[in-house]
Amino acid sequence: MAAPLALGLIVAVTIRAALFRSSFADLIAERVEVVSPLNAWKRVVEGLALLDLGVSPYSGDVFHETPLVIYFFHFVIDYSEFVFMIADGITAVALYLAVRDYNKIMFRKQKYALEADRYPHDVVELFRTPKEMYYIPLKVALFYLLNPFTVLSCVAKSTCGLNNAVIALFILCTIKGSAFLSAIFLALATYQSIYPLTLFAPALLFLVQRLYIPVSLRSPSFWILAVQYGVMFLGSLAIIVCLSFFLLSSWDFIPSVYGFILTVPDLTPNIGLFWYFFAEMFEHFRLFFLCVFQINVFFYIIPLSIKLKEHPVFLMFMQIAIISIFKSYPTVGDIALYMAFLPAWSHLYRFLRNIFLVSCMLLICSMLFPVLWHLWIFAGSANSNFYYAITLVFNVGQILLVSDYFYAYLRREHHLTHGLYLKKKDGSEATLVLK
């Protein structure tokens, strides 16, 4: 599989290099769907200019990236295009290796369950075969590399690509079973944008199950590992934050980065749910609704962890999708990361109910974004309501997509336990309803 992956990397690099040299590069870099006030390249350049003048990059209200990012680009600014292409390559390879190892783990679990005769005999057609699973890692890598959302994000030089690379490395280290490296990359991802903090739960659940420790609040082994992983995560995060302080000799980055993410002061239009709502919000209601909006990302991890405690990798996918939908400044680069996992759940296709409708919604909305933006900003024949309406439809499509996969996953697990062809007590065919 190395040759097809290498070919995919070459094709992806060629497409990006061609777009970097085209007249579309500057246009893409200005698209509000592709960049946000947090990750726009022009803001990084502005921060670098201030740093070179001996002024804190956080003294104004332009730069909101982390100190490590700006110091990193301080040394590689002349090679920024290569940096973003390499970041996409690292993400794709990390996802490839992670999904390959995950498939091996799942195939072994399936084999042991079959040998123990744990499944009803009529669910054979639901089993995953080695031939079916062989190309899935390659499909995941190509889904990320060749996704138009990823390509646009890379050409715009959005730092979202760096965040995706860190999260992909965190996923790889977690599936490899390296708790220490997993904690480091999770701390780095959390340092970048806060929201990956919610990935702590699925990572812990996976590491616990990999060591054959029961997921039980009464298990001492569970709590020992939880404390160890928590200490490694918090220790790594503290070291990274302190390093940022020593680089700047100031804590100015905390309100400028994390305060900016949480309080959402910049209402530049984007594909998220925050900007229009808070532009129309009465000021004395702002704090309440800000808490309501922000809690979405952090709240769902609790019921999902309870329901999917035996399936932590799928839980990880669900939470990454929730982050990309409900974060304060989302871009298409965030969406590309969780969409790359869709081939990994190809065995769920038979249970999906709305996939055609959702695919059409996302495709049509993606094409209408620039159209309605032009009508609003340049033609003057529309207003912000038009653009926000298509944003709402786009996010509804994402929510339907994620909930459909959630339903399909739970339904498949139910069939594996109770049989594929369910019957009522009177012998008639039963209907499975998700409540």
Automatic annotation (TrEMBL):
GO terms for cellular component: GPI-anchor transamidase complex. Residues 1-25 form the signal peptide. Keywords: Endoplasmic reticulum, GPI-anchor biosynthesis, Membrane, Signal, Transmembrane, Transmembrane helix. Pathway: Glycolipid biosynthesis; glycosylphosphatidylinositol-anchor biosynthesis. Coiled coil: none annotated. It is found in: Endoplasmic reticulum membrane. It is a multi-pass membrane protein. The chain crosses the membrane at residues 82-99, 166-188, 194-213, 225-251, 257-278, 285-302, 314-342, 354-379, 385-407. Its main location: endoplasmic reticulum. It comes from the Eukaryota. GO terms for biological process: attachment of GPI anchor to protein; GPI anchor biosynthetic process. Pfam families: PIG-U. InterPro entries: PIG-U (IPR009600). Belongs to the PIGU family. This is Phosphatidylinositol glycan anchor biosynthesis, class U. It comes from Lepisosteus oculatus (Spotted gar).
